[in-house]
Amino acid sequence: MKRTPKDAATGSRRLTRRTLFIGGLQASFIGVLAWRMRFLQVDQADEFRMLAEENRINIRLIPPARGEIFDRNGVAIARNEPAYRITIVREDAGDVETVLGRLSQLMKLDPEEIERAMTEMKRSAPFLPITLADRVSWEDVSRIAVNTPALPGITPEVGLSRGYPLAQDFAHVVGYVGPVSDYDLAKLEDPDQLLRIPRFQIGKVGLEAKMEEKLRGSAGARRVEVNAVGRVMRELDRREGVPGANLQLTTDYRLQNYVQARLAGESAAAVVIDCEHGDLLAVGSAPTFDPNLFVEGISGTDYRALTENKYRPLAAKAVQGIYPPGSTFKMVVALAGLEAGVIGPEDTFYCPGYLEVSNRRFHCWKRGGHGSVNLEGSLQHSCDVYYYELAMQVGIEKISEMAMKLGIGVHHDLPMSAVATGLAPTKEWKRTVRGQDWVIGDTVNSAIGQGFVLASPLQLAIMAARVATGRNVTPRIIKSIDGVEQPSGSGESLGLNPNNLRHVQQGMFEVSNNRRGTGYGARIIAEGFRMAGKSGTSQVRNISAAERAAGVTSNADLPWERRDHALWVDFAPFDNPKVAVCVVVEHGSGGSSTAAPIARDITLQALFEGDPPLDAYPAKDREAVRERQERLRALRPDVEREKKSRA
Amino acid sequence: MSYLEYAVKTTPSGFRKVLYLNWPLALLLSAVACVGFLMLYSVAGGSFTPWAEPQMKRFALGLAVMFTVGMVPIWFWRNISGLAYFISLVLLVAVELFGTIGMGAQRWIDIGPLRLQPSELMKIALVMFLAAYYDWLPARKVSNPIWVTIPVLIILVPTFLVLKQPDLGTAILLLTGGGAVMFIAGVHWAYFVAVIAGAVGLVSAVFESRGTDWQLIKDYQFRRIDTFLDPSSDPLGAGYHITQSKIALGSGGWAGRGYMQGTQSRLNFLPEKHTDFIFTTLAEEFGFLGGISLLVLYALIIMFCVSSAMTNQNRYAALLTLGITTTFFLFFAVNMSMVMGLAPVVGVPLPLVSYGGSAMVVLMLAFGLVQSAHIHKPR
C-alpha cells in the first residue's frame, strides 16, 4: 500500500502518545505490585512469620515409662517389658510384595494383619512406618535382624509394653492395662495428650486404673521440624518426660500365690491382713484370669469365656463381693451388748432350739437347742438363740454402730476397683432406702448376720483384726510410692473395754481349740501359733415352711447356686495376733467344714512365711496336708530364675 | 524513507553491529537470569541439580539465540512475520491433534529431544504479525471496522486454540498482548471501551454458565477463581497455593530469612517452588528488599525497551518492540499478582527466573528481535 508522508507523521505521533500511555499503565502497575509487596512483607510480616513457624514446627510426645509395681519383697508384679514390632516403610521397601514374601519365610505372618497393613500403607505417606506384626518373639526378631539386607524397609522396633510376670496371681489386685479407647477418652474432661497416642496403654481395672495418674508419669516432648507432608527433617530440641512412680505393695507374692492356688477350683475369696500395720498380705479371689491377655486388647473368644463362666473370674470378690456375714457377725453383736452394758460375759440365755418373736419362730442351727449359754459358750457353739435374745435387748442401732466401728458397712479407701461398702443396716436406712419401718424380725435376722447385713471378705478380715487388737486397724495395699513409705494402718485404740474384748477373743479361741467348738476340726496345734476363729454359714435363700416340713435342709441336695456361703474369720497367734484372715467360699455349704480348713492353711502359710511344719496340724490331717503342700509347691513362681533370665 | 534507503545508508553492518547492540538491556536480562540461578540453587537445597545447571545452559543458549537474531536485519523479520504466525498456528493445531498430555493440559510437541511449546512461539509470532500488519496498513485506515476485524481474528484464532489446551495463562497473555499492539498502533479508543464492556459481560456469562451443561471453562478454573476470591475457604485444598505463598512472602519480612534459610520452600510447603512460585522463595529468603530489587530490574528492562521503541522511527520495529515489551510485562505482572494474591492462580511463569523449558529460549528470541530492531534503527 502506498504511504503518504502525512500519513506516516500522524501514525508516529499517535504511536508516541499511545506508547507513553501504555508505559504509564505499566509503571503504575509495577507501583501496585511494590505496594502489595510492602503490605505483605513489611506490614503483615509478623503474622505471616508466625504462620510459617506453625507450618514448620511439630511437637512429638515422648511417652514416659510407666511406673512398675512390686510386692513387699521387691518382686515384680507389673513391669515394662520390651515388645518387638515389625514395621515396614513403603518407600524403602520398593517392591512391597516381594519383601513381604521373603518375610513370610522367616516368620509367621497373620494374613488379616497383612491385609490391614496393606490398606493402611495405601492411605498413609510412603515414609511412615506401618506395623506388620506386634508382640513378636525375640527369635523372630533376631532372624529378621540377620536378614536385613534382603528385607529393605523392614525394621524390628522395640517399645515397652506392660507385662505381668506373676500372671493370674495378682489379676484382681493390680488389674491390667489396655489400649486407650474412645470410651476412656470420652470419660475424661481434659485428657492428657499422651492418651492421643494410638494404642497407648492405660490402667483399665484395679490398681493400674486407680493409681493411673501416679503410674503414668508425664510426657516428654521433642520439637521437630517437619516438611509439608509431615516427614521429620530434624530434631530441634528435646525434653525428657518424667517416668511414672514405682509402687511397692504390702502383699507378699508367695502368700498371694498360695492363696490363689489354695482357692483354685472354688468361687471364693480370701484376705490376709497384718494386724500390726493393716498391711494386706494377700487379697485373693478365685477363679482368676491372666491379665496379660488384656494388655494388647483381649480376643472376643477369650473375653466371652471369662464373662460366661458362672464362677465370675473377672470379679475381685475379696473387695467387691458382699455376702451376709452369717455367724461371723456374732462378735459384733456380742461386743455391742457388752459395751452397752446390756449383758455381762457370764450372763446366760436359755436356748430351746428356737425363739418365738411376734408369732414367728426363729430357729437355732441346732434343732435340740444349746440349753443355757454364756458369751464364750455362745461363740464356741455359735448359738443363734443367744444372739436373737441379745440383739433384741441391745437394739439394731447399737449393733450397727459397733459393726461400723469394726469395719463393716463402711467404705475402706483402697486403690482397687469397686471396693464394696457392704451394709450395717439401721432403722433410718430401711425407712429411706426401702420405705418401710424396721420390724423386730429384722433385728433378729441381723443378730446372726443375715437379713440386711452385708460385708465383704475384706471387711470381715478387718473386723477380725480389730477384734484381735482392739485398735482401729486400717487396711493399706501400697507400702511405698517411689520409695516413700505410706502411712501405716495400725490405727488408734477403738476405746473398747479390754475385758469385753478378751471375752470375745476367748470365745473365738474356744471355737477353734475347744473339743466342742465349731472350728475344732480345723485347729492349729503348734504352740504359739494357735488361732482364734469364727465360722459362718449364711443362707442365700429363704427356707420356706414347706421345705422345712419336707426336711430338705441338706446343702448337698441343692443346686450349687442355692447352697449356703461358707465363711470363716480368724486371727493368730492367739496370744500375740499377727495376722487376721477371712475366707469366703461362695455356696461352699458350711463355714467350719469348707472355709475353716482353707483359712487354717492360709493362716499358717502367713505365719511361717512359707510351708508350715506338718506338726502344726492335728495328726489325722497331716497326710492330706503334706500331699496338698507338695501339689501347691509346684505352682509357686520361681522368681529367682525369672530375675536371672531378665539379666 | 523506504527500508531500502535507510538500510543501505544508515544501518551498521558486519561486526560493527555488535557496538550498536542494546548492551544495557543484555546486561539487565543477564542479571535477572542470575537471580533465577541463585533461587533455583536454593530451592534445590543448595545444589546445581536438578534445576540451576540446566537453567544456566539454557540461558547460555538463549543469549546465543538473542545475539544471532539481533544480528539479522529487522526487515528480514518483518518479511517472515506472516510465515512465523502461520507456522505457529499450524503447530498449535498439531498439538491439538497429537500433542503430549502433561500436567492435565495439552501443551507440548515432542520433536526428538526438543520439547516444543507452540503457544510460547505464538506469543512472539502474534506480536510480529500484528506489527507487520499495522506497518503495512495506512494510519488513516487503522480504525476502520473492516481493518479492525482482521487483527481481531488474528488474535482470537490462536487464543481460542490455546484456551482449548487448556492454558488460561497463555490465552490471557495472547489476548492482552495482541490488544496492546492494536492499541499502540492507534486503533480508536471506542473499540477498547467496547471490548472491555464486552469482557465484563463475558465474565458474568462465564459465572452464569457454572454448573450448566454449556459451562464455558473447566471446573478447576472455576475453583482457582473461587480460591482467588477467598483463599481461606479451602486452605488445604485449592487455596493451599495462595495461602502458603502469602505465608512465605510475609515471613520474609523486610530483609528476609537469609539465603537458603527459607523454611517454606525448603520444607516443600510451597507448591511449584521452582517454577511458577519461585518468586515466593526469593521474597522469603531476601525479603522486601530482594523482591523490590527484582521488580526494579524488570522495570528497567521495560524502560530500556520502551525508550528504544520511542526513538525508533521504523513503525514495524517500534510496534514489535512495544508488543514484546508488553508481553514481557504481562508475564511478570501476572505471575507476581498471582503469588501475592492479587490475581487467581494461572500458570504463568516468572520470566527468566522460573525454571522452564522452551519459555526461556523463546523469550530470549523475542529479545533478539528487540535487539535487531535496536541495531537496525534508522539513524
UniProtKB/TrEMBL annotation, chain A:
Limits of the Penicillin-binding protein dimerisation domain: 62-236
Main location: membrane
Positions of the Penicillin-binding protein transpeptidase domain: 269-602
UniProt entry tagged with the keyword Transmembrane helix: yes
Cell compartments where the protein resides: Cell membrane; Membrane
Annotated TM spans: 20-37
Root EC class: hydrolase
GO BP of this protein: cell wall organization; peptidoglycan biosynthetic process; proteolysis; regulation of cell shape
Region (Disordered) residue spans: 613-647
Record's compositionally biased regions (Basic and acidic residues): 618-647
Taxonomy, superkingdom: Bacteria
Membrane topology, from the record: Single-pass membrane protein
Entry GO terms, CC: plasma membrane
Keywords: Carboxypeptidase, Cell inner membrane, Cell membrane, Cell shape, Cell wall biogenesis/degradation, Hydrolase, Membrane, Peptidoglycan synthesis, Protease, Transmembrane, Transmembrane helix
Classification via SUPFAM superfamilies: beta-lactamase/transpeptidase-like, Penicillin binding protein dimerisation domain
GO function term, MF aspect, one: peptidoglycan L,D-transpeptidase activity
InterPro entries: Beta-lactam/transpept, Beta-lactam/transpept-like, PBP_dimer, PBP_dimer_sf, PCN-bd_Tpept, Penicillin-binding_protein_2
EC number of the protein: 3.4.16.4
Name of the protein described by the UniProt record: Penicillin-binding protein 2
Gene that this sequence comes from: mrdA
UniProtKB/TrEMBL annotation, chain B:
Gene Ontology terms, MF aspect: lipid-linked peptidoglycan transporter activity; peptidoglycan glycosyltransferase activity
EC class: transferase
Membrane-spanning residues: 20-47, 59-77, 83-109, 145-163, 170-203, 286-306, 318-340, 352-370
This protein's record includes keyword Acetylation: no
Pathway entry: Cell wall biogenesis; peptidoglycan biosynthesis
Primary location recorded for the protein, binned into one broad class: membrane
Cellular component annotations (GO), alphabetically ordered: cell division site; plasma membrane
Any single GO BP term: regulation of cell shape
Keyword field: Cell inner membrane, Cell membrane, Cell shape, Cell wall biogenesis/degradation, Glycosyltransferase, Membrane, Peptidoglycan synthesis, Transferase, Transmembrane, Transmembrane helix
PROSITE patterns noted in UniProt: FTSW_RODA_SPOVE
Catalyzed reaction equations: [GlcNAc-(1->4)-Mur2Ac(oyl-L-Ala-gamma-D-Glu-L-Lys-D-Ala-D-Ala)](n)-di-trans,octa-cis-undecaprenyl diphosphate + beta-D-GlcNAc-(1->4)-Mur2Ac(oyl-L-Ala-gamma-D-Glu-L-Lys-D-Ala-D-Ala)-di-trans,octa-cis-undecaprenyl diphosphate = [GlcNAc-(1->4)-Mur2Ac(oyl-L-Ala-gamma-D-Glu-L-Lys-D-Ala-D-Ala)](n+1)-di-trans,octa-cis-undecaprenyl diphosphate + di-trans,octa-cis-undecaprenyl diphosphate + H(+)
EC assignment: 2.4.99.28
Membrane topology listed for this record: Multi-pass membrane protein
Entry's localization field: Cell inner membrane; Membrane
NCBIfam families to which the protein is assigned, alphabetical: rodA_shape
Similarity comment text for this entry: Belongs to the SEDS family. MrdB/RodA subfamily.
PANTHER family tied to this protein: CELL CYCLE PROTEIN (PTHR30474), PEPTIDOGLYCAN GLYCOSYLTRANSFERASE MRDB (PTHR30474:SF1)
Free-text function comment from the UniProt entry: Peptidoglycan polymerase that is essential for cell wall elongation.
Protein name (database record): Peptidoglycan glycosyltransferase MrdB
Organism name: Pseudooceanicola spongiae
